[in-house]
Structure formats: C-alpha cells, structure tokens
Write a structure and sequence with these properties.
alpha/beta, Rossmann fold, seven-stranded parallel sheet, about 50% helix, globular, binds NADPH dihydro-nicotinamide-adenine-dinucleotide phosphate
C-alpha cells in the first residue's frame, strides 16, 4: 500500500510513534524515524526491518526537536537519502502537569516548544517536498486539544494550537494537493504520563479511572492510534483534510452529569 513512499515519523523511539513506524513498515514504506534515544530507536529499526515485506531498513536520525539545527538536519538527511517525502507524521511530544498557579514559564516554553514550535518548524521545511510529491501530513494531537482539563494547562494549550495548525495548514496546502489531518487520542497506555511526573501508583490509578473517563471504559493502545494515522495517510482518506479525528474511546463526547 505504501511501497515507494517515504514516511517521516518524529518521536518514533517509543509509544505511538514506534507503533506507527512498524505499521508503515508492514505496508512496504521507506521509513525515516527520529528521536533522541539511540538505543530505543535502534530497537525500532530492527523490528521495522523484520516486519517490512522487502526487509527495508529505516533511516534513523537522532534529533532533539527543540534544536533548530537538528530539525533542519532531519529534512536534509531524508532528502539526501530518498530525494522525496510523501508522508510527515508530527508525533514527538511531551506532557507536563500544572495549573495557572503552578506551571513555570520554563515548563510552558518546554511544552509549547516541543509540541507546537518544533512541528511548525519541521512542517515548514517539509512543505516544499510534500507539495512536490502531493503528499500529506498527520499530526498527533490529543483530546486535550478539543476539550478542557484542569492541571495540564500548557499541554492542553499546545494541543489546541496543533489542532488549529492542522486546519489552517490544510486550507493553505489544499490547492497544492497536500492533505493535513490530526488524530486526537484519549489516554493511551504508553507511559507518557509517567514521563510527565506520575509515579507508578498514580499511573495505575489513572489508567483504572479510564473505566469512567472513557465511554468505552478503558484506555487505548498505541496500535489503535497508529492504524488511524495510517488510514489518514492512505488513499482511502483522499477526500479528508483539516480533520481532527478523536481516537479516544468516545471521551470527547462525554460531559459529567
Ligand atoms: P512517548 O513518550 O512514548 O513518545 C514520545 C516520543 O516523542 C518519544 O519517541 C520521544 O523520543 C519523542 N520526543 C519527546 N520530546 C522530544 C524532543 N525534544 N526531541 C525529539 N523527540 C522527542 O509517548 P506517546 O507515544 O504517548 O506520545 C506520542 C504523541 O502522542 C505525543 O505527541 C503525545 O502528546 C500524544 N498523545 C499521547 C497520549 C497518551 O495518553 N499517551 C494521548 C494523547 C496524545 P525520545 O525520548 O527518544 O526523544
């Protein structure tokens, strides 16, 4: 389905990004994966190679999305190797907890830098290549972009910005044949929240609470998000652009009563 296509995925060393890399590999794509953790990325390279029908080995680029030179190097290295980009998956992201009373400006900058500025920068540099290939973009947003939750203020703001980025860039690039969409996952059991400060006990309780906070009564899994990313990037979604698609077990439709 994706043979001869070049798919660039940020934050592919774990969770949703790693699963997405595997899914595209299964479908025959040439994959470019980025992140900071070399060991984890090497592990994903191995798994993708095994899953690829033609045993294609992903191109691995170590990059901190908050360093402009690293972001430029992602596009340069990809074009040097493949001479094109068909699909860009802006997945790398971080979560930090905090309210208006407890979130420092450093935290705000870190979250907005990683979740908004860096995909803006990468997309800006990828755009001419996507226009050439009439390719498409899938942004990994969150239900927190569509609905409001206390104590994850900067994160909610960052994902709301990413949703608006998705719609605006979709309109800007539509005349050039480039589609731009987003997935908005609910809680997915990747461990992201632990990196954001929850300890094991709090994380376990948080996942248990998904029985009430998600209509389907459970957290989601990475592969339930990666399958939707692949769909949005595929010809099956040729008439979809500017969509922010909840992949959240119905959480976006809920309202406490
Ligand atoms: P993970 O923590 O498993 O994955 C995050 C990825 O982003 C890692 O591969 C990490 O790579 C990368 N990353 C983070 N910061 C940077 C940086 N500065 N430079 C380069 N890479 C970076 O979590 P998920 O898979 O859950 O998260 C993926 C996306 O899904 C995020 O955008 C997140 O906001 C979104 N999401 C997740 C939800 C969930 O419940 N899990 C719900 C809704 C949305 P490395 O550490 O190697 O740098």
């Amino acid at each position: 389905m994706f043979s001869n296509k070049v798919v660039l995925i940020t934050g592919a060393s774990s969770g949703i990004g790693a699963e997405t890399a595997k899914e595209f590999s299964k479908l025959g794509a040439n994959i470019v994966i980025t992140g900071r953790n070399k060991d984890k990325l090497n592990n994903v390279v191995k798994q993708c190679e095994e899953l690829s029908p033609n045993k294609l080995k992903p191109l691995l680029i170590i990059a901190d999305m908050n360093k402009e030179d690293d972001v430029e190097n992602i596009i340069k290295t990809t074009i040097d190797q493949f001479n094109k980009i068909d699909v860009l998956v802006n997945n790398a992201g971080i979560l930090e907890s905090g309210t208006i009373e407890t979130t420092s400006l450093e935290q705000y900058d870190r979250v907005m830098g990683t979740n908004v500025r860096s995909p803006y920068h990468l997309t800006m540099l990828a755009a001419p290549h996507l226009v050439k290939s009439r390719g498409n973009i899938v942004n990994v947003s969150s239900v927190t972009g569509m609905r409001s939750f206390p104590n994850v203020l900067a994160y909610c703001m960052s994902k709301a910005a990413l949703d608006q980025f998705t719609r605006c860039v979709a309109l800007e690039l539509a005349p050039k044949g480039v589609r731009v969409n987003a997935v908005n996952p609910g809680v997915i059991s990747t461990g992201l929240h632990k990196k954001g400060g929850m300890d094991d006990e709090q994380y376990e309780a948080f996942l248990k609470k998904c029985a009430d906070t998600h209509a389907l009564g459970r957290p989601g899994e990475s592969k339930e998000v990666s399958s939707v990313i692949v769909f949005l990037a595929s010809e099956g979604a040729s008439n979809i652009t500017g969509a922010t698609l909840p992949v959240d077990g119905g959480r976006h439709a809920m309202c406490p009563r």
